[in-house]
Design brief:
Order of helices and strands: EEEHEHEHEHHHHHHEHEHH
Structural class: alpha/beta
Distance between the termini: 26 Å
CATH class: Alpha Beta
Number of helices: 12
Amino acid sequence: MFATVNHVKLHYEIDGDGPWLTLSHSVGTNNSMWAPQVEALSRHFKVLRVETRGHGQSDSPAGPYQMSDLAQDVLALWDELGIEKSHWLGLSMGGMIGQTLAIKAPERLSHLILANTTGRGPANAAALWADRAATAQSKGMAAMVEGSLSRWFTEPYRAARPEVMASVAAMIEGSTVEGYAACCLAIGAVNTLEALRQVRIPTLIIVGESDQATPPAMAQQLHEHLMDSQLCVLPNAAHLSNMEQPESFTEAVLKFLKPAS
């Protein structure tokens, strides 16, 4: 399904029935990233998966983007669909969008799940993400595959699951250069930690113990800045922990949300 909101055509999918639960993917992926969770979550929730601008089948307007633009896309889609309030599950960039929503529009969120994400990158974050954007622009999305897979999954999992590596590589290559680069620059500018001190939304923070991209120390920072938060560290998982450890990830999500449903 598609909706044109905030001057952008967004692709979205809805499964199940119950309280709304919005899922937001990482940079360089799309809605199919959530395939391991959709069936289980849709038994309890009306699951909305949104493809961020520049990804999947959504439009890729010219950049630069700010994280507030990506959050506003979500708010406009919720308005279009008549969603007054939703739970939020966002991974990596999706977690950054969720943080921005929690700061800018807390009344629209019931519960917040921030997976494998950060409220502030390392000191060189802006330069690092600018370099990734420049590489994509000069060499194309295929050049982003190898480095992304090595950061996103542990080596044993990459070796054991070539079919998953192929599917994730296809997601990366399916992202537009323009949208990916603009989202990279938005990620490099993220700095939400101090504002999160004012957020009072019940929050679950999930991180893979082997996450190189947003390591457990960054999850701990989020936990310390969010007053009403829990921290869950998943063993044997790197950055796309929902794919590498799908059962443990889904169990953590449902344990957190089901009492609230």
